[in-house]
Structure formats: structure tokens, C-alpha cells
Design brief:
Layout (H helix, E strand, L loop, with lengths): L9 H6 L7 E4 L3 E5 L7 E7 L7 H7 L1 H19 L4 E3 L14 E6 L11
Antiparallel strand pairs: 1-2, 2-3, 3-5, 4-5
Length: 120
């Protein structure tokens, strides 16, 4: 599915409806679904339908309009689920916690406290 010929990521398999997910928003180029291991009262994964970009840096460099669309859809989800107050987290690289190398962000909200992303 990707330009490198890599196996479809778990997110690409969700896009293709091969893996079930609770989809909360979808456009022609973006999909968002509930995280299966939520770290906050509201925790939604938002990603591009293409797995061409491994991380947000690659996406921003190649297709800033697609990144802007992703952020806009994230805002819409947050408006509906958290009153517009949210964290939008992109992990970039294994040591930053990225485990799926298909650009995605985590929309988190719901009475979060400063410093609640971990104690490391």
C-alpha cells in the first residue's frame, strides 16, 4: 500500500476495514477512531488514509495541506467530545513512543492534568 512496498500498517488495515475499529470521523483523506488502549477519558487516534508518511515531520514537509486537514478534523472531534480543550500528540521515532510508523496523532481530553503524560 505504501510507496516503499511495505506491508499495510495496522492503520491502513483499519482504513480498508480489515481490522474493526470504532470510527469517530472520516474524510476522503483522514480517518479517526477510538484508541483501543485509552490513556485519557477521551482518546482518539487520527491518521491519514495513506501510509506514505512515517511521521508528522515527513507529512509537514511533503503535504502541509494534509497536515492542516488532519488538525482541523482533530479540532472538530475535540469540539464534539471535549468542549474544544484537548491535547494533540504526535510521537516521532521509537524513543518518543512511536510504534506504528504511519503518521498519526492522539487526541486526548477530559480533565487532564499538566504532567499526566508520564513520569519519565
Amino acid at each position: 500500500m505504501s510507496s516503499s512496498g511495505a506491508e499495510p500498517s495496522i492503520f491502513s488495515r483499519i482504513v480498508a476495514r480489515e481490522i474493526p475499529a470504532t470510527i469517530v470521523a472520516e474524510t476522503d483523506r483522514i480517518i479517526a477512531f477510538n484508541d483501543i488502549h485509552p490513556q485519557a477519558p477521551v482518546h482518539v487516534v487520527i491518521t491519514t488514509k495513506t501510509q506514505q508518511y512515517r511521521n508528522v515531520v515527513e507529512l509537514a514537509a511533503a503535504e502541509p495541506a494534509l497536515l492542516a486537514e488532519l488538525v482541523d478534523v482533530a479540532r472538530q472531534i475535540a469540539d464534539e467530545r471535549t468542549g474544544g480543550e484537548f491535547r494533540l500528540v504526535f510521537n516521532t521515532g521509537p524513543s518518543a513512543g512511536q510504534t506504528v510508523f504511519h503518521v498519526h496523532a492522539h487526541i486526548m481530553g477530559g480533565q487532564l492534568k499538566e504532567g499526566s503524560l508520564g513520569s519519565h
